[in-house]
Amino acid sequence: MLKTLLAVDGSENSLRAVAYVIKRASAAKDQHQVQLVNVQHPFHGDISAFIGAAQVKQYHHDEGMKAIASARAMLDAAGITYQYHLFVGDPAAIIVRCAKEMSCDEIAVGTQGHSAMASLFMGSVSTKVVSMSDVPVLLIK
Q: Is there a contact between 106 and 139 (Cβ–Cβ < 8 Å)?
């Protein structure tokens, strides 16, 4: 059974990755397991004077649910079984760690379509995932 960690952020690029994984999973006929992951960036600085920890946690949860909503709808419509997970932190590090902890065979992530030179300067999440991961990474453009 192939186990894919599908990292999404709600963008068009990540939805193309969802469509690709659906295509592969549909062909595998119940031999494909999908772990849907979204990682929210943490707030920077001390915001505790302005809002409480519970509100921050709820905000990140709500934003994560919004980010995976379209991916979930696509997976549900295709009849693909999946589990979803929401995190807060450094996206690349958490994606790679989750893939390892969940014993995933691969990571699927959409790219932003930057050139190789732009990615060097911009440090995209997908570039970082490729460099940090011990499992194959599918970059879907």
A: no
